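Protein modeling request. Please complete all fields; requests missing the sequence field cannot be processed.
Requester role: graduate student
Desired output: 3D structure, token encoding
Chains: 1
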Amino acid sequence: MNCLIVDDEPIAQNILREFISKVDHLKLIGCANNANEAFNMVQQEQIDLIFLDINMPGIDGIAFAKIIPKNIHVIFTTAYREYALEGFNLEATDYLLKPIPFDRFLKSVAKVKEALEKDKGNLTDEERADFLFVRQDRKMEKIAFTDIQYIESYADYIKIHLQDRTVIVRESISNFTKKLPQDQFIRFHRSFVGNIKAIDSYTHEYLEIGGQALTISRSYKEEVLLRLSQYE
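Delivered output (232 residues):
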């Protein structure tokens, strides 16, 4: 999800920058100090989600939320609880009260992700693919998403571990992950992405997939455990 931070407080911007950097499926497009800067970015970039402060000089966050395209999700971030009702009346996805705890931030992001996946669910069968093609030797080979157990980064290549074999592709794990359905796969280490349906068991330390115990790195642990808790 392409994100934009709109906040006139440098400290608040830095906190949100750090939070966004910890979530693999979030990409920070930029930061704006006021609504005018943010409006220019919205016109120039593809934005999915805005973390929007309310109390700003000039045009405040409430007024700005009324003029942006309806397909952009808004999470209000503010130190003032009294703005919550008006924020929700604007159909904001969520309302975060500063100082923002990271676990509360993750829950808000999960709401946006769920809403975007529902939008994708309205696609026709022709528009919704359940596979991709990767280059093998001199041909392009079809790989079904359901056959993928996990992806492993290996130098300048990735190993795609399927149910019956392993396919090696020259590509970064970050680029390949962007091609996968985000609701089916989870990044749990800088070197590993797993198919949620292929997880046989898990602890706070590792995921077991296809008989392999794969370590959950510290930077991904909170997001991973939060997502997997949805299935408990």
